[in-house]
Amino acid sequence: MINIPSVKLGIVAVSRDCFPVQLSKERRKAVTQACANINIDIVEVQTAVENEKDVVKALNELQTAGVNALVVYLGNFGPEGPETILAQKFSGPTMFVAAAEEAEANLIKGRGDAYCGMLNASYNLALRKLVPYIPEYPVGTADELAVMIGDFENIARVIVGLGKLKVFSFGPRPHDFLACNAPIKPLYDLGIEIMENSELDLLESFVKHENDPRIPAIINEMADELKEGNGYPGILPKLAQYELTLLDWMENNLGTSEYAVFANKCWPAFQTQFKFVPCYVNSRLAAKGIPVACETDIYGAVSEYIITCATNMPATLLDINNSVPKDMYANNKAQFAGYELTDLFMGFHCGNTPSCCMKDSAMKYQLIMHRLLEPGTEPDITRGTLEGAIRPGDVSLFRLQSTADCKLRSYIANGEIIDVDPHSFGGIGIFAIQEMGRFYRHVLIGKQYPHHAGVAFKHAGKVLFAVMKMLGVEDVAFNQPRSMMYKDENPFQ
């Protein structure tokens, strides 16, 4: 995929001067080897930091190696001043972890006390107002820490990506979907740039791409992807023209940013002026790592991008759309085993999910728009959706959102898509999330979230939660088990 940063990890061992520095160095080497054993590339900085002069040396090594995500490793107790100055002066995300003691036979000359040193480090980090990634239990053997560093690589990819991200939006955020119309000031606080444009800007650029010599090659790409699902080949030239329009807009307007997402108005005037539905193009760009959120959903686009960076996989944006009928639940008891009816819902959008995330897919037309714009006629301007069942397997729901008073909040819920035919239209799948009914009422409704949810095609809750904490998002909701009541849940139900 394109449009997401490459993370180059570096590890710096720190050592308190009254502990043997060689202990920290040997343990650092072991962690580096453990990372290599599970295919994690990490630069082993040779300077062990004992004082502030060592900080300067280590920073120079990191810069020379092109490291953009730093693991600060307490191989022993560690010097809380220099080690936190190192994190403060480093220009990217940091992680703090500590060495576990290896063997009972080596607890005199070889005891490092890093378990204790993490406590001092945490206090000094707070004094400097730093928020590094600290795993839930940040003390471990080399093999255990390598797994934690693997999580950090995904977390760091999000942090680096957001710091160089630009959102392009086209069209006013829709009045009838006011929930998608949230203040954008908190995104600037995260370092994200935003360029809001008129639909006329997009239309003008689209018209200029008519007869673009690159169009035939894009048409061939689309036909190869759709194969027998190419139900409306006549619409492909316009879709190819539109895809080039968006890609050129991104290239020509990135400015000081490196990555981009789109949040575009997509109906109903879009169809009458552009003469197609943009969903399939949106799906293709999402597959490349360039999410395109519908209905000018700026926070939806950013949420998709966070998922894409966190998983290194394409994401999608779906409506939390409709309930599962009782007869469908009864007729598929085996597939729904372990879930109540209220744990289930259908996630749907017109056709923006990448084909690689679909069980089956085909080019179709947007039924709802067709009813509105072309009643009683053959589909024409409503062609362009990618429809079918979304592939079964693990998923995470995620959204970052601003409240009306500019406070960021988010939710995360791990679940799965069940392999049952939804018997409906659009890009659609049956989602199962434990205690979804209560999560729906007390998080999605209770905290006024919009109907769009970002979907990760794996369980990404651990990484997404850590990212939210590093970004300073205090309210991170999740699907609480029955034994854990929500704040406003009625205890007498």
Using the CA coordinates, give the radius of gyration.
Answer: 25 Å
Report how far apart the termini are.
48 Å
Principal-axes shape call: globular
* Binned strand content: 15-25%
Helix content: 25-40%
Low-pLDDT runs:
none
Number of strands: 18
* Domain tally: 2
Overall pLDDT: 96
Going by helix content, strand content and strand pairing, the class is alpha/beta
The total count of helices amounts to 16
**What is the spatial order of strands in the main beta sheet?**
10-11-16-15-14-17
Biggest sheet details? 6 strands, antiparallel, barrel
Report on this model:
By secondary structure, the protein is α/β, with parallel strands linked by helices. It folds into 2 domains: 9-162, 3-Layer(aba) Sandwich (Rossmann fold), CATH 3.40.50.10940; 166-478, no CATH class. 37% of the residues lie in helices and 21% in strands. It contains 16 helices and 18 strands. The protein has helices at 21-37, 52-65, 80-89, 114-127, 142-163, 185-189, 199-208, 215-226, 236-253, 269-274, 279-287, 298-311, 326-331, 367-373, 436-445, 461-470; strands at residues 9-14, 42-44, 69-74, 94-99, 139-140, 165-170, 193-197, 259-264, 292-294, 315-322, 344-349, 362-365, 383-389, 393-402, 408-418, 427-432, 452-456, 475-478. Strands 10-11-16-15-14-17 form a 6-stranded antiparallel barrel, surrounded by 4 helices. Strands 2-1-3-4-5 form a 5-stranded parallel sheet, sandwiched between helices. A hairpin with a 5-residue loop joins strand 14 (393-402) and strand 15. The protein is globular. The two termini are 48 Å apart. One of its GO terms (biological process) is fucose metabolic process. Residues 348-474 form the L-fucose isomerase C-terminal domain. GO terms for molecular function: L-fucose isomerase activity. This is L-fucose isomerase-like protein.
